[in-house]
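User: Modeling request: complex.
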Amino acid sequence: MKTRRVAIIGVGHSKFGERQDVNVKELAFESIKEALNDAGVTPKDIPYLSVGSIGVWYEEPLPAVAIAEYSGMSGAGLYKVEAACATGSAAIHTAYSAIASGYVDLALVVGVEKMREVDTLTAMELMGRAGSYLWEFENFGLTFPGYYALYATAHMNRFGSTEEDLALVAVKAHGYGAMNPLAHLRREISVEDVLSSHVIAWPLKLYDCCPISDGSAAAVLASEEKVRELGIDTPVWITGIGMSSGTGTLSYREDYVGLEATVKASKQAYRMAGVTPSDVEVAEVHDCFTIAEILAYEDLGFCGKGEGHKLVREGQTEVGGKIPVNLDGGLKSKGHPIGATGVSMMVELTKQLREEVEPRSRQAPLKKYIALAHNVGGTGHYCYVTILRR
Amino acid sequence: MSEMPTIRSRKLEITYNIPISRTLKFWEGLKEGKIYASKCRKCGKLYFPPVADCGNCYSSDMDWVELSGEGEVEAFTHIIVRPVSFQEHPPYTVAIARLKEGVKALAWITGVKKKDVRIGMKVKLVPRITEDGRLTYEFKPMRE
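Assistant: Request completed. Predicted assembly structure:
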């Protein structure tokens, strides 16, 4: 297949957290403005706008229209993209495809979510219903922490991972999140804090779960011709994208110790980029719950099946380790405004690859300049793996 | 929630009327104390939860097969923090078990202390009609 190269040329990121100081349009504007400035383009230059958002927890049913209007881009080609918690990566994929195919030369992607306009238990209900409503929510009230807790008990039983191992993932995330000025939860925690926090869905406790966050992130994507025309000095190229999916109904799955969608999407992305897991020097993985990060290590091939908890025990996923993961605090500490998360991963990795991460203590050491973003929707209902290279 | 100034939106209450005509045998079966799976007459694939159309071979010619309900737990969780529409329920335990017939089921497990639920335990899936008249099913521990 003959396609054109596509680069990320500008990124923007709002403060994540409880953002009741802004509505969804104002929140999206924050990251859009920064991304356009970073790329050196104006809203009038943008022919194609892809908005990643779930909605339902905020008042606007057609957020793409509202955001395009507010940010001065009405008239651009426009849509809203949904792929559950992988929405941001899906929105990136649509813009990537439009440029790679030659349809447009420049595109803006914004991922945004405002989840705190409803109360916590209503947000939990709306998330819990997403999966297989009739067979898993209607009579059984399964929640998102519950989905991943099923995987946690199966993994612990099969491979001997422990609640302490899960806690180590949270401790690492909070360590980096505390350094990230844009993170929702900016405080270091201990294993004891995690173990003594109240149970949400056993064995997952409060500190095993990402917070419910508001936030936005944006990226400007361009063709190689446009990169040259604009004189961009540090384009970050999208060299591989893999996408896959899994059943909505969990009882149709073969087992509960890994996400098949991650395995499939990552193989596709590695093949397209012509790299192997050991080439990746910094990664963002989907740690909506601590167990999810351990599953991701294994399913992405950073270690063998059943060895994910050993990687975190040995500190191999910290700066200086074999493969530094989630140096921005991850979903766990940075926050997980659902539609924004995938785009936020691209923002972080673009900054990592440009070596402009602040503070410097959370910059990954780079030789090959290869980064990977892993974004899961639901419990492997969707998966996108994106490989970036400077 | 927040101390920031906000406008409270108009209230909207939504419920859905979910069609069950094409899997009615399953829902009627629950009232008779039976748990049915659907089986594709063309390719033989067994489905639980049941379906009316086979996603494997695209046939819509389905047979109904009564399940023994006997199975073994593969994963479970105790849901302590419940969503808004389950607030009236005390915390509940959700399990996935593989049934003798090869299909898996997800349901609450009842009649056992939380601390005694474990992977590998033998359970039986049985129909239940809730106090408010909903048709459902649940796992009960089997004596070994």
